[in-house]
């Protein structure tokens, strides 16, 4: 796992490219935070969670509380805009995060859980104790890009 830096607001932020990456491509982009982002390669999407296609991040939470997972994404279309996301291994099948899309730019979006058009949670909120936490992004649709990940404390 990689270093943790503090955002201006005090919430932890990680660059997507700084994670423990399996099966992702790293791309250079002047518009990306840190100059790079990761993307699911063509034909890299999968129909279920797989340990051969995952990006893992360890966050060190200082203050226990309810958090949202706010990310910068690069998702050009509805065919390039989803991951399964797990927090400390849960849910086992992952939150199905359908990200915001933009043809040209990186956009900020919070992890949600939308299955079969049904919104189960938007945004997902998780209670985190102080200490280390593992957040995993599993490939689902190829072409989906992830730039940075932040934990935003809600209370
Ligand atoms: Ca989609
Ligand atoms: Ca795609
Ligand atoms: Ca980045």
Characterize the largest beta sheet: strand count, sense, and whether it forms a barrel.
Answer: 8 strands, antiparallel
Strand content: over 45%
What's the tally of helices? 0
Q: Name every ligand kind in the structure.
A: calcium ion
Look at the structure and name the CATH superfamily. Answer: Galactose-binding domain-like
The residue-averaged pLDDT reads 92
State the CATH class. Answer: Mainly Beta
CATH topology: Jelly Rolls
Poorly predicted ranges (pLDDT <50, ≥5 residues)?
none
Q: Which descriptor suits the 3D outline?
A: globular
* Rg calculated over all Cα atoms: 14 Å
Number of domains: 1
Element order: H for helix, E for strand? EEEEEEEEEEEEEEE
Residues in helices, as a percent range: under 10%
The tally of beta strands, per DSSP, is 15
Span of the ends, CA to CA: 27 Å
Q: Judging by the overall fold, what is the CATH architecture? A: Sandwich
Given the helix and strand composition, which structural class is it? mainly beta
